[in-house]
Amino acid sequence: MRNEERRRPKIVVMGGGTGLPVILRNLKDQDVDITAVVTVADDGGSSGIIRNYVNVVPPGDIRNVIVALSGLPKLELDLFQYRFDSKDQFFAGHAIGNLIIAALSEMRSGIFGAVQELSAIMKVDGHIYPAANEPLELNAEFSDGTTLTGESEITAAHKLIKHVWVTPSNKDGEEPEAVQEVIDAIMTADQIVLGPGSLFTSILPNLMIGNVGDALRRTPAEVIYICNIMTQKGETEKFTDADHVRVLNDHLQQNVINTVLVNTQKVPDEYIDYQRWNEMSRQVNHDFKGLREQGCRVVSADFLELRDNGAFHNGELVVNELMNLLGQVDSRNAEGR
């Protein structure tokens, strides 16, 4: 009798910014079924300009995730990532990939179908799902009671954020929803990974979509948060690792985070170039008692990569730990059969 084909473990990675591709590039080498759920609430840089011109989902984060999971040769990827440096008023600063995503979004009447088609063209190994099929706006209430709309404006305010939520950028009074494929991926996952990335502007915009938050509260998958190494100016200054988790759980109105990955390797004094990496504030302090009080399993290890006078996650070390945690889930499931 022919052996039944082995089912590949399903991992959903959620976030945005520069942290998500770091994990995905290393995860691609593992024998897992990857789904990346990418924020659509960015309004800065080339993405923001294109969004204002043609009213499509900002493509920058999606472009970087496509490249991270693509099987195309380097030349094609370099072309897709190429950013114009001409003095032309429109093209200067735009990445070719952003323009392609914007064009396909218009052709296919939405970002979701466009990304699926482009993923096939780019030979993506895995699934890339925009968190919503329409552009969203990030809103924030600060501790002083004031509010702002727009990811870049919220970060630039440099005020303590109390709460964030998302609204459709081109509709009034309607709650944003993720497409069913996103919800199905969350509900059938073996492991869900949040981060690394900006807490309020890269991770929470995904979770604040109503049916996404509901799915995270109901999923049987292990939900893992990769805690940031450095606090972020204008977002998480003076935060401990427990504070990061507390914000996630409070926004989801439930202790959703099962496991948190915490870097314990010290960033050398005077290493960080704070002018170049002006969003970095200081290294995140540890509060293991506060994490345990929220029901978290804590995995603390050296996840640090020092490069270009900045502190980042070492994608290989993080993915190795994710695979170790996934193996523990597989072992428990096998024992239960």
From TrEMBL:
GO molecular function, one term: LPPG:FO 2-phospho-L-lactate transferase activity
Protein keywords: Cytoplasm
Subcellular location: Cytoplasm
Main location: cytoplasm
Gene Ontology process terms (BP): regulation of cell shape
Gene Ontology CC: one annotated term: cytoplasm
InterPro entries to which the protein is assigned, alphabetical: CofD, CofD-like_dom_sf, Gluconeogen_factor
Domain of life: Bacteria
Cross-referenced NCBIfam families: CofD_related
Function field: Required for morphogenesis under gluconeogenic growth conditions.
Protein family according to the UniProt entry: Belongs to the gluconeogenesis factor family.
Name of the protein in its database record: Putative gluconeogenesis factor
Organism of origin: Secundilactobacillus paracollinoides
Organism lineage string: Bacteria, Bacillati, Bacillota, Bacilli, Lactobacillales
